[in-house]
Fold:
Amino acid sequence: MVKRGLAVFLFAAWLASALPAQAQAPSKHAGGHGRGRPAASLAIGAAFAPSGELWIVGLDAEQRLVVQTSADDGKRWSPPRPLDTHGDTPAADAEARPKIAFHPQGRFVVVTYTQPLGRPYTGTIRMLRSDDGGRTFSAPFTVHRDRQTITHRFDAVAFDAKGTLHTLWVDKRDAEASLAGGRSDYRGAAIYRNESTDGGLTFGRDLKLSDHSCECCRIALAPSPDGGLVALWRHVYAPNQRDHAFAPVDTTSVDRDPVRATFDRWALDACPHHGPALAAARGGGYHAVWFGERDGVAAVRYARLSAAGRPQGEPIALPDSAAEHADVLSAGPRVAVVWRSFDGQGTRWRAWLSQDGGLNFALRELGRTDGENDHPRLVRRNQEVFTLWRTTKGVQVERLFP
Structure:
């Protein structure tokens, strides 16, 4: 039986070029329309250092993990500086990308990536840390204590306002244990996490945030009013609805179910490889964007969530039926949503901008390419919001606000 939802998923997955096998090795189709053409691994992570410099991390043409910095908001970049991964081959494709995070005071910097393992869909979350502001980095090490050859993938990493480092990832230890015990009814994977209070030098134990996450979608993080973090991820609701769940990152017991944040009720026995994005809203609550099928219509949608993660009002589809892999960020009343979309001939880089907290938006065209390209990303420095887009020609940066 082929349902329309499955057909839409297959089309979206083809456009996103993010089939499961591609997350196991350097990308073969990193762009939105690389049908049959080899491509570079273009997925990057980006962040502003407390000093104001813009940093990116990704793979170069030789598949080396490198960092670059810009002191003029992306107009000029430093030469790529390779980081020693001691033989690792980091994933850098679509939802599985290297990431970089800075301690609020700037002393500690961490870079994370997924290292694919020998079995399909398996991996381990690796980290390099710096205690001198990024001048030097440690050798890579595994973040989680569980060392089975199973799924530990699609990590998210951030420092909270208090300086605690949080790492989250998709983990299949419970699904594997269920199968080993003769049961096959465990839905999806799980979200696990850990914490470090010394900039990644030591970590606490692996803690389960939630059972039944989707298997291959990124995890979104945003700051909470108490100085901590909250998370949004695609969840598998019984029996197979691929909606989204919300929870504070410091939740310590899976006895408290995460809040259901979206109600598309997309019934799908597969992973869409298309995670959400989340940003804190002025005055409380959050801005969220995600991809899903609702009432037979597949789209990227935007909505406000309450402080507890519950939906407020009806979601709004982005003004682009081909939109994919959107990101969202806010600065005071200003809200930016960016995405890419393939129009049959090329890929467009687009933004939807609001000056009034998401009540009204204006569409803005940012760029276009006929070549391979990454998902657009958003970064913030104080009240300034920027978007980055990596294509085969390099990394483009646009200031969106102010």
In short: The first helix runs from residue 4 to 16. The radius of gyration is 19 Å.
